[in-house]
Amino acid sequence: MTAEITGAVPWPDQGSRAVRRAVRPVAGVLADGTPYYAPLGEIVSDGATVTCHLCGRSLKSVAAHLRAHGWTKAAYCQTFGLERGQPLEGQETRKRRAASFAPRLIFDPAIRAGSAVGRQRAAAGELSRDAARASTGRPLPEQRRRKASRAASAASGEVAAQANRDRAARHRAEVAARVASDQGYPTLGAYVLARVASGASLAAISREAGLNKDWLHRHLAEVDPAVAATVRPGPDHRAGRDGPAWLQAVTALGFADVPSYLEDRHLVRHQTVSAIGGEIGMSHHAVAAALARHGLARTAHAGKRKAARERVAQVAAVLGVDSVPRYVAERRAAGWTWQAIAAECDQPPSWLRRQVTGAAGGARSGQRPSPSTESRVAPGIRGATRSTSSSTSHAWSTGTGTVNECSSSIR
C-alpha cells in the first residue's frame, strides 16, 4: 500500500487556487499507471458522500465531478468494476434530486411524454430485451461478482436445496392445475383416472395434455399420491401392468395373457423381438420392455441362432458324428485341406472355419462346452491348431496345397 499527497482538483470558480490535503492511501494502480483510491468493484460511502476512485475525494456527486477528470460515467464504471446502474451520489443527494424531479414529472409535458413512452416499452418487454442485447459479450463487473458471492455464502446448501424443492413443488402444482382446467376436470387426478379407465397410458395422457411423455410417470406421485397408487399397481399385479392394447392383441391370437404369448413366440418359436412387434403392432422397445417386465430372457437374433444350431445338427447327422468341430479337427490333424473337408461335408470352407473358431473362442471367453463334448472338442481343436504348419507343409510337398489353405495356415 502506497500513499501520496495531492491537491484538490480545481473547480471553475476556484481558479488556480489549490488546497493541500492530507496523506491518503493509494488502493492500487491500473494497468496504464493510473492510481486509484477506493477498492475495485466497491463504492466507499458514508451515506452523504461518495469517494472518487480517481482522486480519493469524498463528494456528494462523483458523477458530476467526473467532468473535472475528463471521464464519463460509463468509462468510470467499466474501469473500476462497477455496475452501469450504480449511483455515484450520496443518499441525501439522491433524495434531493428525486424530490426536485417529482414536480417536473407532473407539469413538464416533455418529461411526461418521455415517461409514458418508457412505461410502454417496459410493459412490452423492450427494455429487458435491449438490456440483454447490450450485456451480450460484456464481462461481468467485479461489483456484481462480489454481490453474487456474498449472497451465495449467506445461504447454506440445505437452505438453497430446500428453496429449490419448494419452487419445484409450486411449479408442479401450477402445471397440474393448468392441465386440469384445460381438460375440464376439477383436479389432475380426476382427469388421469378418467383417461386410464378409457384405456390410455400415462405417456399418452401426458402427450395429450401437452407435457413431456414422462411427466406423469415422474410427478404424479407427488401431485396426487392416491391416484398414482391406483393407476400404478405393485409388482405382484403382473397382468395389470400390461396395457389394454397388449391384452387385446394377445387375446386375438388365442393367448390368455401376455407372458404366455411372449414365451411361445420368443422362447419356443425363436421369433425375434422385431418379428413379435410386427405381428401384434407394437414397437421394438415395447416388446423388449414386456420381456423384461415378465422376467423372460431376451435372445438377440433368436431366429438366426436357431437356424445356425439346426444347420450344425443336420451336418453332424449327415456325417454321422456327434460334434462338427471335433470332426473338422480330426480331419485337419490328418492333413486334410479345407477344400477337401468342404467337399466331403458339402459345406463352404468359411463355415467350417467358423465352427472351429467359435468353439475355440467360446473356450477362451469362459463359455465351457457341454459335458459330453468338453473333453473331446477342445483337444481336437488344439490338435488342429498345432498340426496346421505340418499339414500345410505336407500338402505343398505332395502338390495338393491350395491358396485358401496357405492363407488360413498363415493366419
Strand content: under 5%
Structure classification: mainly alpha
Rounded to an integer in angstroms, the radius of gyration calculated over CA atoms is 43 Å
> What is the ordering of alpha helices and beta strands?
EEEEEEHHHHHHHHHHHHHHHHHHHHHH
Low-confidence stretches: 1-20, 235-240, 367-411
- Overall geometry comes to elongated
Model description:
The chain folds into four domains: 24-151, no CATH class; 158-231, no CATH class; 239-300; 322-410, no CATH class. A two-stranded antiparallel sheet has the order 1-2. The chain has a two-stranded antiparallel sheet with strand order 3-4. The two termini are 78 Å apart. Helix content is 62%, strand content 3%. α7 crosses α8 and α8 (188-197) packs parallel to α11. It has 411 residues and is mainly alpha-helical.
Explain briefly what this protein structure is.
This protein has 411 residues and is mainly alpha-helical.
What's the helix and strand layout?
Layout: E1 2-4, E2 24-26, E3 28-29, E4 35-36, E5 50-51, E6 58-59, H1 62-69, H2 73-79, H3 91-107, H4 109-123, H5 126-135, H6 142-154, H7 157-183, H8 188-197, H9 202-208, H10 215-223, H11 225-231, H12 244-252, H13 258-268, H14 273-280, H15 284-293, H16 302-319, H17 324-333, H18 338-345, H19 349-364, H20 371-386, H21 388-398, H22 403-410
Antiparallel strand pairs: 1-2, 3-4, 5-6
